[in-house]
Design goal:
alpha/beta; 6-stranded parallel β-sheet; 211 residues; globular
Length: 211
């Protein structure tokens, strides 16, 4: 596959973090005596923090969106600094792209206080030429805005960009942005694997398949 720039989602794509978010969701709800739906982590995985807070409100959490966002981050920050690691061959693939002159960007729903520590802890922060969040883009990954923002920061036309995502709405939005969409397997989105395979331009189980 030929492209001039690669745009990567973070959680579930580059790093094994969705189990951490599933645990955080459960802690927040259980603390308030609210049962945690089995599919909540998957549902929240591609949302902005505001979207995740809205879903918590629908489940019965009374605290404000700002309070919930602070709680999300307080629970997550130590995990991202010390306990979350890369998916197999992710670091090697980033080096492979760098050696080939391919520009790279991160496009994530996670704020800088989470993405920067986990990238530095795993030694790959320097591999990225640009960083974008859904907060900065102003919309969730249900829309192509974050990918278009990443392309703009990289100075590369959307048609020359490839997006790596583990969830269906990210794949669809990347394609709506006019980009090549590459699905990355994650067990938290395995229920959508048939649709992911059908919707993506390519689907991989491991980054070694791209080298």
């Amino acid at each position: 596959m030929k492209f001039s720039a690669a745009i990567f989602d973070l959680d579930g794509t580059l790093i094994e973090s969705n189990s951490v978010w599933a645990r955080i969701d459960k802690i927040i709800l259980n603390k308030r005596g609210i049962p945690c739906p089995d599919d909540l982590a998957e549902k929240l995985s591609s949302m902005t923090y505001e979207g995740a807070a809205e879903e918590m409100h629908r489940l019965g959490v009374k605290e404000s969106t700002d309070q919930l966002i602070r709680e999300f981050n307080e629970l997550a920050v130590q995990e991202y600094r010390h306990n979350i690691f890369l998916k197999d061959n992710a670091a090697e693939y980033l080096e492979y792209l760098k050696a080939g002159g391919i520009r790279t960007a991160l496009a994530t729903a996670s704020p800088r206080i989470l993405y920067e520590p986990v990238l530095r802890h795993n030694g790959i922060y320097r591999n990225f030429d640009a960083f974008c969040t859904t907060d900065e883009a102003g919309k969730s990954k249900d829309f192509p805005d974050i990918y278009l923002l990443a392309a703009s920061k990289l100075g590369v036309p959307p048609s020359e960009c490839a997006v790596f995502e583990d969830v269906l709405n990210g794949i669809i939005s990347a394609k709506n942005a006019g980009m090549t969409a590459i699905g990355v397997y994650d067990r938290y989105s395995s229920d959508d694997i048939v649709t992911l395979r059908a919707s993506a331009d390519k689907f991989i189980m491991n980054f070694s398949e791209m080298m």
